[in-house]
Specification:
three-stranded antiparallel sheet; 46% helix; 157 residues; alpha+beta; 4 helices; 3 strands
């Protein structure tokens, strides 16, 4: 049994040997919608039990790959989605109901737990140093010490 994706359909093709022409022949025995997420039942009436089992195995593998791609897309677009969510909340925060806010907090908690579970701990928060006038000079002296404070070693002291 061969499976071919052609256009908007998936075709199930049976190969058999033709002794008259001494060649292998192919016959289209079933076709179903390419974008279907459910296993086709009506369209596969002509398939044998072994062919149905082979189609089921192929369909499950195809669905697993599809789910993995969807998960990868969601992970890759998560940051942009959360930034857009934050902008929307800032724009219409007062219109948000308490139940929606609680559900959002719960979902964010779930995201944090999932990140920790797979080994991505929460990064340390960057400290925002407040520079008071006059303090900047002290910090500059610590980073680049003034050479005149200490006597040089060639003076014999």
């Amino acid at each position: 049994m061969q499976f071919r994706e052609q256009g908007k359909k998936i075709q199930c093709i049976r190969s058999f040997y033709d002794p008259v022409s001494k060649r292998s022949r192919q016959k289209l025995v079933a076709a179903f919608d390419r974008y279907s997420d459910k296993f086709p039942s009506v369209e596969i009436a002509e398939l044998t039990e072994a062919e149905r089992q082979e189609l089921a195995t192929w369909f499950e593998a195809r669905q697993a790959v599809k789910a993995e791609r969807l998960n990868q897309y969601r992970v890759m677009s998560a940051t942009a989605t959360l930034v857009e969510l934050a902008q929307s909340i800032r724009a219409t925060g007062a219109a948000m109901m308490d139940s929606e806010a609680a559900a959002t907090w719960s979902a964010l908690s779930g995201v944090a737990k999932a990140l920790r579970k797979v080994g991505h701990p929460k990064p340390k928060r960057e400290s925002l140093a407040v520079v008071v006038p006059g303090q900047a000079d002290l910090l500059a002296d610590v980073v680049e010490p003034v050479g005149d404070v200490l006597p040089s070693s060639s003076m014999g002291v």
